[in-house]
Amino acid sequence: MKKHITFLTLLLLGTLAMAQNFDAPRKGAKIFAQEYSITLDAEDETTFDLWIVRSRMAKKANFLAPTLRSSSGLTFEVKQDTENVDHYVVTVSAKDVVPGQYTTIVSSKTNGTHQVTGTTLSFNITPAKTVASKDGE
Q1: Domains in the chain with CATH codes
Q2: Which residues form the signal peptide (predicted)?
Q3: What is the strand order of the sheet 29-33 is part of?
């Protein structure tokens, strides 16, 4: 009976460990996003979250805010959360952007020896919704 309880406990702990969304890297840090595929209307804006997850060796490292690069004309504003230095809120604006599928590279740098593994985000820009007006008005 004791072996069964031990086995069930280890099975439960293994399941809980696998349920974590953000696995810490072995070295350096890694960028995770709230969503990796974002749909946005043209002439609109939305917000999403980014996190820098650190390894044990990089707990005290100073990482710069993530930068987002895209050749599509999307504009990004990155703000650091006041309570968690590894949490960032990103506002993306699709003003004057042609509808289509765009890929954006997210990266960050550090002032030390640790490296940051970036990620890519996909933006699907749909045509702007127009408000239909009544004839004669």
Answers
A1: 23-126 (2.60.40.10)
A2: 1-19
A3: 75-80, 87-93, 45-54, 29-33, 116-117
pTM attached to this predicted model:
0.73
The helix (H) or strand (E) run that includes residue 15 is helix 2-18
Distance, CA of 61 to CA of 30 (rounded, Å) = 13
* Strand arrangement of the beta sheet that strand 37-41 belongs to: 37-41, 119-126, 100-107, 67-69
Residue pair 61/110 in contact by the 8 Å Cβ criterion: yes
SS3 call for 57: helix
In tens digits, what is the pLDDT along the chain, a chain of 137 residues?
767 666 666 555 555 444 445 677 778 889 999 999 999 998 899 999 999 999 888 888 888 899 998 888 889 999 999 888 899 999 999 888 889 999 999 999 887 788 888 899 999 999 877 655 555 55
